[in-house]
Specification:
Elements: E1 2-3, E2 6-7, H1 21-29, H2 37-47, E3 52-55, H3 62-73, E4 83-86, H4 90-103, E5 112-115, H5 121-128, E6 134-137, H6 139-148, E7 158-162, H7 164-180, E8 188-193, H8 198-207, E9 212-215, E10 225-232, H9 238-249, E11 254-257, H10 261-273, E12 278-281, H11 287-298, E13 304-307, H12 309-312, E14 322-325, H13 332-339, E15 348-355, H14 358-371, E16 375-381, E17 384-387
Parallel strand pairs: 3-8, 3-9, 4-6, 4-7, 5-6, 7-8, 10-15, 10-16, 11-13, 11-14, 12-13, 14-15
Antiparallel strand pairs: 1-2, 1-9, 16-17
Length: about 400
């Protein structure tokens, strides 16, 4: 880990980080003893009200890195919003709120609310009337509440942009800047991201003051163990080979990624026709249906979750056996996030990318060069996977 360019290999237990008894008890109840590198780097400056810009791989504990200081700073007797977390997707926002609730388990009086689109706004208005001190929100829905004057941000002290690169890449730049401009009492801003894009740096330059820069590299201890394959297939055989790979590997829980919403629906339907329990999530599916599908997947009632990149961003699912890139992703970053759904929590993971056209082959070549990942080439012939000797 690097903090302001200096390599720091410090390992700390939570009990040595100066946390309150209430927060220590909450962390212990979760079964955690030792802080992750991003937490060791980010918690002290956040507690000291400093701005933070942090780059760390998915699954390294970023929510607790900003959540612990935010809860520590929250006055249980307060009735104004003092902490705000912005997230790019509904699923991520809900997961952040769930973790914050766990941190507040023994700090009675601290209230949080989650504001996101695709859900009745009236229920959220009623929750805001209970005067929460912490708001977790997607930018679009938060702007809706601001226009309705159902939420006030003039007393906010701490703001966090989680998955900042994805949020800005999804076109929320204008909403984010408008939101930041409405908080005269803001004391610090945290930006947490898997990659630091130009848009993230632009926001940092305008809204942060001498930020503490933290970088956690995907080194051996936090780099996921994922065996990666590219499988050359005929286009018309993609669905059958996906089903056959599922059976051959004995995989119980899989995520299949497609580039379009239409293709996710089609693939889920085609898999069901082959006797595979599968369902899709994407941006056009109602929120209540998406939540139902995700619950079924987490409970093991669905074998395959078929998803677009946006819908799957931020999903907190730790035990995915295998990832299928049914469509080769359009960007290197999408590939990294997709395969990162497996091999989490120090488990072994597998990722298959199905390549059936020259265009897909060229895109996959670029992904391999750009990510420097080791991807084993295979051919699927007569129900058998055969390793292909790479051209020198």
């Amino acid at each position: 880990m690097e903090v302001n360019g200096e390599t720091i290999n410090e390992v700390q237990d939570y009990k040595d980080m100066g946390l309150s008894p209430a927060l220590l008890r909450a962390v212990e109840q979760k079964g955690y003893v030792t802080a992750t590198p991003i937490q060791v780097g980010a918690i002290p400056p956040f507690m000291a009200w400093k701005d933070v810009i942090a780059k760390a791989p998915t699954g390294t504990g970023k929510t607790f890195a900003f959540g612990i200081p935010m809860v520590e700073h929250t006055d249980p007797a307060g009735e104004a919003v003092t902490g705000l977390v912005l997230a790019p997707t509904r699923e991520l926002a809900l997961q952040i709120q769930e973790e914050l609730r766990d941190l507040c388990a023994f700090k009675e009086g601290v209230r949080s609310v989650c504001l996101y689109g695709g859900a009745p706004i009236e229920k959220q208005i009623q929750a805001l009337k209970k005067r929460p001190q912490i708001v977790v929100a997607t930018p679009g829905r938060l702007m809706d509440h601001m226009k309705r004057h159902t939420v006030r941000l003039d007393k906010v002290e701490t703001v966090v942009l989680d998955e900042a690169d994805r949020m800005l890449d999804m076109g929320f730049v204008r909403d984010v800047t408008r939101i930041l401009d409405t908080m005269p009492q803001r004391r610090n801003l945290g930006m947490f991201s898997a990659t630091i894009s130009r848009e993230v740096l632009d926001i940092s330059w305008v809204y942060q003051r001498d930020p503490v820069e933290i970088t956690v590299q995907p080194v051996a201890e936090n780099k996921p163990d994922i065996q990666q394959y590219r499988v050359e297939v005929d286009r018309g055989e993609k669905v059958d080979i996906t089903a056959q790979l599922l059976e051959a590997g004995g995989y119980e829980r899989a995520i299949a990624f497609c580039n379009t919403k239409n293709m996710t629906d089609r693939l889920a339907s085609l898999l069901r026709m082959r006797g595979v329990q599968a369902d899709a999530i994407h941006g056009d599916i109602q929120q209540r249906v998406r939540e139902k599908v995700l619950t079924q997947f987490r409970e093991g009632k669905l074998r395959v979750l078929v998803a677009t990149d946006v819908a799957a961003r931020g999903l907190d699912i730790d035990d995915v056996d295998v990832v299928f890139n049914y469509d080769v992703p359009d960007e290197n970053e999408y590939y990294v996030h997709r395969i990162g759904r497996t091999g989490r929590a120090k488990r072994h993971g597998v990722a298959y990318t199905l390549v059936s056209t020259v265009t897909e082959a060229l895109k996959m070549d670029e992904i391999q060069r750009g990510t420097r990942n080791v991807v084993v080439p295979l051919k699927y012939e007569n129900g058998v996977l055969l390793e292909v000797e790479e051209k020198s």
